[in-house]
Amino acid sequence: MPTDRRDEALGGEAARSLFSKFRTLLEANTAALATMAVMERMLGGEYIFDRTFLEKSAREVADFTYQAVYAVNAMTGNRFVTLYDRFMAITAVVEDILTGRQQEADDDQLVRSLSQLRLEDRPQVGPEGAALGELAGQLGLFVPRGFAVTHAAWSNGNLVPEAAAAIAAALGVPPEGPPDAAMTVVVTVSGADVVTAWRKERGVPARGEDLVAALGGLARVALIELGDAAGGGRIAAAVTAEVPAILRGRIWTAWREGAEPAFLRLDVWPEDDPAARETLILDRSHPFAVQRKLPAEPVAAGPSHRGLQLSDAFTLPLAGQALAAERLLGAPLALEFCQDPTGRFVFESVRFLPQLPAAVSISSGPGEVLLSGGEVACLGAASGEVVPVDETTATTAFPFGAVAVARSASPALAPLLRRAGAMVAEVGDAAGHLAAVAREYRVPALFGLPGALTVLTPGLVVTVDAEVGLVTRGAAPSRPAPESGLSPDDPEYQNLRRLLRHIARLTLTDPNAPNFSVEGCRTLHDLLHFAHARAVDVLADLRQVGFSEHLAIPLSLPVPLDLRVLDIGGGLASGAVGLEAVRSRPLAALLAGMLVPGMWDTTPARVGLGEILGAMAKTMPETGGNLAIAARSYCNVSLRLGYHFTVIDAYIGSNPEKNSISFRYVGGLADAAGRAARAAFIRQVLARQDFKVEVTGDLVVARLKLIEPETAEEVLRLLGSLCAFARQRDTGLSNMDDARALQRLFFEIRERSLAQQEKKA
Q1: Superfamily classification of domain 369-473
Q2: Separation CA 246–CA 233 (nearest Å)
Q3: pTM
């Protein structure tokens, strides 16, 4: 039966209304992400901001999120009305932080795992537990197994009744308590350390010492007073396990005598012979040369001791880890550590030291200038030996404190920044993901310095001074911490981190996962991502809202791709059906990449029975074919090429802060090893383009934000080539060597084809 023209007109009008709501959602999503990016830039500490900035930024993101929630409900007939409840719950926490209230949803927990703590948790757990959690969670340093007993577990200096059960559960001991054990308790009040021996006895009345009675085999407890004890201050405790040790020691990251520059001071002694202590004074720059030994101080009489032989293999990684901790925590530190029987350094306590006077300069004068200019990814200055790195460099092979030099500021290098004293890259900018990671770890970094790999040869000692944009020959004395900007100890900085935990963190990544739901939204970013994904679902299958599928126009292309385009405003020119019809800037770039000669392999896929059975065990996403939703500056493309399902979402405008590209891939015929190799191949390609990439099984999720429009177009052209190239060629992968070989082949074919195109032009 022919379609009634009035029905077509009504359908077209309803479609325009739907597209208008989607554009509202898209604009709100883009604006919110731009504001989040500005907030995240502040994590480097080089920018001064105040409470007004935090209030303005947080409420802007909340307003944009509300617009997105409203738009997706308008598009779906209020199918997701419960999103409003999640929005109200999350913004209530955000407002509590902005108004200075410290209470958050998890603040009523009596016990919290040490590894999950961060500096912004200090009001609940005190500085000891928060600092140890930061070192473990952010830098990946080893700390003892343990947990924090939060201020909520205490009342008038005693543990609340429920605390004993919570502590027992954390310890894995019966509620009635462990057998007698000798305890060592460290009580920290107003910076003074008091050490006492404690032996638990059965029948002791329940008092503040209940904590000790419940400790079992855990032997270190730091009771921290939060506030003025006389004024009813709160108490928290960091509880850590005793670590079997062969050596123990302390390291001061900023120590000096008289007017000399700052050094590292290291005290070390054998676990079984404290009288054998040795004290070394080390340079504060890699490779942390020993300047001198200090004479041993008088020690209580004991057995004659053997001299320690502390080699570079001992001092170099320890000194580098200590300075990485100083950079992250934003202040000079005194760290207690031990070395366990496996050789690992385990940091058992952290104490913040006063800043050294400003008279101690960064440099006594620059040496020969080797490089200058570039973009400042993170302010600061550091010296060290040059170590060239790339995406294949193993994190464990990179020495702590060295200067990393790379061709490109790829996100794949992010783990190295936990160890690097400074970083230089030939290609990259301050808006990329690696720059954000450098600011988070406070690693001085200069990007965009052509020739760096040629000039900065391996083993050369250099100073990277991002303050003035110079790389000079030789080492320079360094200051212990930045003199400008905010430190992680400042209230505004901690509030920023608390806000970002509820605003910018993205916990929903896979739209097909069970937790991708209204109830699974934990942050404003989650709400935006969920609303956007569900809105795209509506546009991808207009039949579910009563529209004709003929609203999507088939595009005629010179490659085997059946693609329909849904124009939601300026995406297509009227009257044309070929590539020349595309007016959407991101879609045009993506299709141009697909059309690069040599990218399409039309031969049948080479698969075996095992690969077929492996694919049969996978649940592939439901999709109605290849669909592009396009506007002038936006596209969302769903592709099912071969056995792969790919979604690319991109926005390109004139403002780099609003530009973003996301890529999601899943599926394909292969066994488990083949799927892992394919995911590795895709990750390697994307990482070279500055994407932040997450891989779960064979699900690859990648995001790129804050990019210049021309760069965004180039990246989309590469994604188009990748989609075409991987359609069949990746079915023969079986291991990581295959993945690396396929990556080389991809770039060889693409670069050769592009060179031929330029020659013809």
Answers
A1: Phosphohistidine domain (3.50.30.10)
A2: 38
A3: 0.63
